[in-house]
Design goal:
336 residues, alpha/beta, Spore Coat Polysaccharide Biosynthesis Protein SpsA, Chain A, 2 domains, 7 strands, elongated, disordered N terminus
């Protein structure tokens, strides 16, 4: 209704959001020194290239004045938005929350420590819009990090390439660009922000590119990540690989293992019984089946096999119920 002020507000919001070309997502924790310079840099790049944009700063429970700085610069620049967590949830939670809030056609993520250059944004945007990539990941080919960080990073990236089949040199680079459809159709949790390209590919967004980007030395503060991130990251990779392969068909894993162990235990038990009967028939010395340690191994295999098969069966029921309720399959296009 034209006379309804709520209608006008909704229409204005829709028109504003639909016109935004780029959403820049910046998760941060205790980065008060770098935020003014970063926001000015992003704004300058956007204005020079004529982009309509929004910047979403996600304060992941900072203990310094980061939120005060965000509040101040958002008043000066209406394109800047801020989200604040009540405590530190981690980078993955910050990205997932911002992905749901972003309205731009292209989503670009970067770190808040000024080690990622906003000057890369125009080329990343072009690769998504003109070259039709689903996702473009930055590659910090020349890094300004100590060897204690670069060597584990190389090992981590090599392992991820081998397990995931995604050919990227730098999975952990915070500077990435996405089509909006990608971030709206994936869910990340835990510490899985490193594996967004892997998750995207396994969800059908297979056109993944890579761009060499500048890595700048840190000017303020200290890194918020330690070597433990590589251990947790590898465990997350195994989790993602497992869920992707068997998440919708648990019977293929648990049923196969259960059936194998059940038949192995059964074969051992019948072999022991047959051996006893053979010795009795041929008047040879024999021992009771229950006195043989192999018999108890066979019983364990039969019981474990039965439990694994039952776990696979129950898993299939849960998956069927979940899919029937949510229908959570990604649709590429619709017509009619």
């Amino acid at each position: 209704m034209p006379g309804n002020p709520g209608f006008g507000l909704c229409f204005y919001t829709f028109m504003t959001h639909s016109a935004i070309q780029i959403s820049v997502v910046v998760p941060l924790y205790n980065e008060e020194e770098s935020l003014p310079e970063l926001s000015e840099w992003i704004a300058r790049v956007m204005n020079e290239n004529g982009f309509s944009y929004e910047v979403i700063f996600v304060d992941d429970g900072s203990k310094d004045r980061s939120w005060d700085v965000i509040s101040s610069i958002s008043q000066e620049n209406p394109n800047i938005r801020g989200l604040r967590f009540v405590r530190n949830y981690g980078k993955t939670a910050a990205l997932q929350t911002a992905f749901q809030a972003a309205v731009g056609d292209v989503i670009i993520t970067m770190d808040a420590d000024l080690q990622d250059s906003p000057d890369e944004i125009p080329e990343l945007y072009k690769m998504i819009k003109e070259d039709r990539y689903d996702l473009v990941s930055g590659w910090k080919k020349k890094r300004y990090d100590p060897i204690t960080k670069t060597v584990p990073t190389k090992i981590f990236n090599a392992a991820t390439r081998s397990i995931s089949g995604v050919s990227l040199h730098d999975f952990n680079c915070g500077l990435k660009a996405y089509r909006k459809e990608v971030v709206k159709n994936i869910t990340i949790y835990g510490e899985m922000h490193r594996y967004i390209p892997v998750i995207a590919k396994w969800n059908g967004f297979a056109k993944i590119g890579e761009k060499v980007v500048q890595h700048r030395p840190r000017r303020y503060g200290t890194t918020k990540f330690g070597l433990e991130r590589f251990i947790f990251g590898f465990l997350d990779l195994l989790s993602i690989a497992f869920v992707n392969k068997f998440g919708r068909r648990p019977m293929h894993l648990f049923g196969s293992l259960g059936t194998l162990m059940f038949f192995l235990g059964t074969i051992i038990a019948f072999w022991l019984l047959g051996k006893k009967i053979y010795n009795i028939y041929n008047l040879q010395p024999y021992r009771n089946v229950t006195e043989n340690p192999l018999f108890f191994l066979a019983l364990v295999a039969i019981m474990v096999g039965s439990q694994l098969f039952l776990a696979g069966f129950l898993g299939e029921l849960f998956v069927k119920q979940s899919v029937s309720k949510t229908g959570d399959y990604n649709i590429s296009e619709k017509v009619g």
